[in-house]
Design brief:
six-stranded mixed beta sheet, five-stranded mixed beta sheet, alpha/beta, about 35% helix
Length: about 300
């Protein structure tokens, strides 16, 4: 009897232990399920109650401290959709920008980043654009679409040194008369794009080659407006067309998924911001996307 009672007691203890373990496991699974279902971002974000954006304080048309740039406007759109407060960490977008902002966990997203750049984990792209040729309207270059066009041979062309189209210019013998502008600058006190546009309007150069958003923005705001041709027909040299997404830390998977959903759900509103800033946005066949097509959901 004593041995049977002892064995029965051990059995009850074992069953109690197994039952407790099962309850604990169920609780863990439930918690994990709730985390996955709600995309809990408390571990990934600096402050889950705020949209904390890494930005340059003086880099129009992308961002500035006054909130006037296209990426500022996109951040405002996303903050409203997320029902979060919008905060910025500003740092000049030069060497060390990612390391000192996103990498240092001072902020949680860079609003514009080329797809394929391994410094960050990219979201799905929200627009395609290209380097562009900018000239005075009616100056004889409006229908030039490639850098091997003979009409460019004698022209004085502005180019940011070290950018992909500089290679295309060299291949086509255009660097002899080119005017280079610095790639690495302190954006707080200088702007190669603005300097190039000023030289174009004054006649110091005949044409300028700029990154699409800069080309479109400054051309639109020039008086009179300048002509912009995206360089989508180049057959040699590095690619000049890029997809742009947002940048997050490589470990932040839930955050990336949430941003991807926001991009998909708000593409027409994103397109409107881009077009308002003069950005030449392109479809998958490199054709310009106008206001009517931009207003349609993907």
């Amino acid at each position: 009897m004593h041995h049977r009672a002892e064995r029965s007691g051990k059995r009850r203890a074992l069953l109690t232990s197994l039952f407790a373990s099962a309850l604990l496991l169920e609780g863990i699974c439930t918690a994990l399920g709730q985390t996955a279902a709600t995309d809990d971002l408390s571990i990934e974000l600096v402050d889950p109650q705020s949209l904390r954006v890494c930005a340059d304080p003086r880099n129009m048309p992308f961002s500035n401290e006054k909130g006037e740039g296209l990426e500022n406007k996109l951040a405002e759109l996303f903050a409203a959709k997320l029902q979060k407060k919008l905060d910025y960490v500003y740092f000049p977008q030069a060497t060390g920008f990612v390391r000192m902002t996103l990498g240092a966990h001072r902020c949680d997203v860079i609003m514009g980043f080329p797809q394929g750049d391994d410094l960050v984990q990219g979201t799905n792209p929200y627009y395609r654009t290209a380097y562009a040729l900018v000239s005075k309207t009616g100056a004889g270059l409006d229908d030039v679409t490639t850098l091997d066009d003979a009409r460019l041979k004698s022209k004085h062309i502005g180019i940011v040194a070290g950018t992909p189209p500089a290679t295309n210019m060299a291949v086509n013998g255009l660097m002899v008369n080119a005017k280079p502008y610095p790639l690495v600058i302190d954006t707080r006190i200088d702007s190669s794009a603005l300097a190039m546009i000023k030289d174009l309007t004054s006649g110091d150069i005949d044409a300028a080659i700029l990154w699409g958003p800069m080309a479109g923005f400054y051309a639109k705001n020039a008086n009179p407006p300048l002509h912009v041709t995206p360089l989508v027909k180049e057959t040699t040299g590095p690619r000049l067309v890029y997809r742009i997404g947002m940048g997050v830390r490589s470990a932040d998977q839930n955050w990336k998924r949430q941003l991807n959903r926001l991009i998909q759900e708000n593409q027409p509103a994103i397109n409107k911001v881009l077009l308002d800033f003069g950005v030449p946005i392109l479809d998958e066949n490199n054709r310009p996307i106008g206001p009517e097509a931009a207003a349609k959901s993907p």
